[in-house]
Specification:
Length: 72
């Protein structure tokens, strides 16, 4: 191999490495954005669940388990 062809191989390898690093960085950013969206959705759902939960003062909720005595 000549000196110029060795340089070309090294430059190609550096280019491929930089390209791969860019691809991995982009994938990491997308994953972080997706996880942030999922966390925001989960927080919103949790907040809605807290506001929908009946308190002790509001009486029995829709899922209360009231015991009914059978009369003969």
């Amino acid at each position: 191999m000549t000196s110029s062809s060795k340089e070309a191989v090294v430059m190609h390898h550096e280019f491929q490495t930089a390209r791969q690093a860019e691809i991995l960085a982009r994938a990491a950013r997308r994953r972080l954005a997706r996880e942030a969206e999922e966390a925001a959705k989960a927080a919103k759902a949790a907040k809605e669940a807290r506001t929908a939960t009946p308190t002790a003062d509001s009486g029995p909720g829709p899922d209360s388990r009231t015991c009914y005595a059978r009369t003969a």
